[in-house]
UniProtKB/TrEMBL annotation:
Lineage: Eukaryota, Fungi, Fungi incertae sedis, Mucoromycota, Glomeromycotina
Highest taxon of source: Eukaryota
Signal in keyword set: yes
Keywords, in A-Z order: Repeat, Signal
Chain ranges of the MIR domain: 158-214, 222-274, 283-335
Protein's name according to its UniProt entry: MIR domain-containing protein
SUPFAM superfamilies assigned: MIR domain
Length: 336
């Protein structure tokens, strides 16, 4: 009942229960600590008896008695199991994860800094993030600094594009999103599904692409994508792959870009940071807002677009030249 102070039944930390009970009493104008202590003793479940030979004179002595009872041992075991099952999800709030992590550590009576580091590392989403975090927290002597470092690593992690990520690629020069539609095909060339740039506002039905490994490559889903990798892009709505081949595009007579079915070597694209010269900074991993070029691995021409419109009003997408021009710049603006 709401008008009664909380009961202690062994399902939470004794210190937390005492704090809640004292707060309850304070709200009702009960400030005498001896009275509050007596109320606390009366609100302990009858299945958790206080030994008759122990004199409870303070909240500390009460907490110690409750922690000595077998129910608290079970509570700690439950908390440790919850801690072992805890995993960080990059789509969830970091603060929520840390709150649960610290609560489970306290409830499981894990106080040693190095032991807490080990559990935090176990809770990471994959081995790559785990190794990065391990290297950065190895010599830290404050767990507050460990949490701060966790925050920095996770912010990097959230921005990284991974195999299996759904992305929206924006053409930098024109501001339009790379798109396709299973119902729109070229009426020239091989008459395959058309790839084009649609509009300045994202259309989640048609503008999402899934990052996949290149032909004959196995990469675990969730791994970050290093620069200088050869990748594939699967159109989410149609399930077809971004594709190019030795065929002229309908408007500018550059190299046609389409979406095509079974993965083959015409679907492979070399990911690089965009450069106006032949010197590329290909260190690190692909992240949101990186300006990149995608070079068709087989023909060595780069994914491009421009202000030339096709008959259907969509902006033509082609492969063209060596990737150093403004029209070869693309960024990921949306990541899911």
């Amino acid at each position: 009942m709401d008008d009664l102070p909380p009961r202690y039944d062994g399902t939470l930390q004794p210190e937390v229960w005492v704090q809640d009970l004292r707060f309850f009493c304070a709200l009702r104008g009960i400030h005498d600590q001896a009275t509050v202590l007596n109320i606390a003793i009366l609100r302990i479940d009858r299945n958790i008896p206080i030994p008759k030979d122990i004199d409870i004179t303070s909240f500390d002595s009460l907490v110690n008695v409750l922690k000595d009872h077998v129910t608290h041992s079970v509570f700690r075991a439950d908390s440790l199991e919850k801690l072992n099952k805890l995993k960080y999800d990059r789509n969830k709030d970091m603060s929520e994860f840390i709150a649960k992590f610290t609560s489970f550590c306290n409830d499981a009576n894990i106080t040693d800094r190095e032991e807490k580091k080990d559990y935090l590392l176990r809770n990471m989403p994959d081995d790559i993030v785990r190794d990065i975090l391990r290297s950065r927290i190895k010599n830290l002597n404050s767990f507050d600094k460990v949490i701060e470092t966790f925050k920095d690593v996770m912010l990097e992690h959230k921005r990284q594009i991974r195999y299996g990520s759904k992305i929206a690629l924006k053409h930098v020069a024109t501001g339009r999103f790379l798109s396709s539609n299973k119902d729109i095909k070229y009426d020239t060339g091989y008459k395959q599904q058309m790839a084009f740039c649609r509009g300045w506002k994202l259309d989640k039905l048609y503008d999402f692409w899934i990052v996949i490994p290149a032909l004959n490559q196995y990469v675990r889903s969730g791994n970050p994508v290093p620069f200088n990798s050869v990748i594939g892009l699967k159109h989410q709505q149609s399930g077809l792959n971004l594709h190019s081949h030795y065929m002229e595009s309908p408007v500018t007579k550059q190299q046609e870009v389409t979406c095509f079915g079974n993965l083959n070597d015409d679907d492979n694209w070399l990911l690089q940071r965009h450069s106006t010269t032949t010197n590329y900074d290909n260190s690190g991993y692909w992240e949101v807002d990186d300006t990149v070029s995608l070079r068709h691995a087989k023909t060595k021409k780069s994914l491009s677009s421009h202000d030339f419109m096709m008959k259907n009003g969509f902006q033509e997408v082609t492969c063209h030249a060596d990737g150093h021009e403004e029209n070869h710049k693309w960024i990921v603006e949306i990541l899911e």
